[in-house]
Design a protein that fits this description.
Helix content: 40-55%
Number of helices: 8
Strand content: 15-25%
Low-confidence stretches: none
Oligomer: single chain
Radius of gyration: 25 Å
Largest sheet: 5 strands, parallel
Number of strands: 12
Structural class: alpha/beta
């Protein structure tokens, strides 16, 4: 279910779309003019905006640019023209998708769900903090006690995988499968060597761990200093 704002001046079309989307489980609000639609898009914060281009007070393309200037809300443009050049211009201007009139409720519902899946996957993953260790997946950077860590790409992937599972014991089989993307074939040495390099950069050893704790015959556990199982 999503909250959908429809910006459409044609009352017949607006009513039909509201009914169709409501039947598909969405919560729907509407606006009949560009300016009221712009205000609703900013203040009501819908999950997705369905924007008609033929509005009475302002061209829908301009509304698209105005909304995009202040909000990242997904926008599906409704157009009566299936002109490729026009559609490309709309997508370049910030539209996330488009539908061409006439369209059915099932198609519109599917497009809304697809846009929401795409935009959800585009959200930046927040940095992971474990004690004074910070691992930022988007920037592919890590720091310890405020100082940046000089990690190889594989070391970063290994540290990030463990950090997002802080407190849990992760097996070497899982690390080889998920971090190295290789089937497990008893290649403990590969994992062990990288863990050793990573410990060195974290300023610790297997005998005197601070963050990386070996769990004998099981795997490794990343935990905040002082956090013992």
């Amino acid at each position: 279910m999503a909250t959908v704002l429809i910006v459409e001046d044609d009352a017949t079309i607006r009513t039909a779309v509201i009914r169709a989307l409501t039947e598909h489980g969405h919560v729907v609000s509407s606006a009949a003019t560009a300016m009221s639609g712009l205000q609703a898009a900013v203040t009501a914060r819908p999950d997705v905006v369905l924007l008609d281009l033929g509005l009475p007070d302002l061209d829908g393309r301009e509304v698209l640019r105005m909304i995009r200037a202040v909000s990242a809300v997904p926008i599906i443009v409704v157009t009566a023209r299936a002109d490729e050049a026009e559609i490309v211009r709309l997508l370049d201007a910030g539209a996330d998708d488009y539908v061409v009139k006439p369209f059915g409720g099932a198609q519109l519902d599917a497009r809304i769900r697809a846009v929401l899946r795409r935009t959800a996957s585009d959200q930046p993953e927040p940095a992971v903090t474990v004690g004074s260790l910070v691992v930022d997946a988007r920037a592919r950077s890590a720091s310890l006690d405020g100082a940046p860590l000089d990690l190889t790409p594989r070391e970063f992937d290994l540290l990030h995988y463990l950090a997002v599972r802080a407190g849990a014991v992760v097996t070497k089989r899982e690390l080889l499968t998920e971090v190295w993307k290789q089937p497990y074939a008893g290649a403990d040495k590969t994992v062990d060597v990288h863990l050793s390099w990573l410990r060195r950069k974290l300023g610790e050893t297997a005998q005197e761990p601070r963050y990386l704790h070996t769990v004998r015959r099981v795997g490794v556990r990343l935990a905040e200093p002082g956090d013992q199982p």
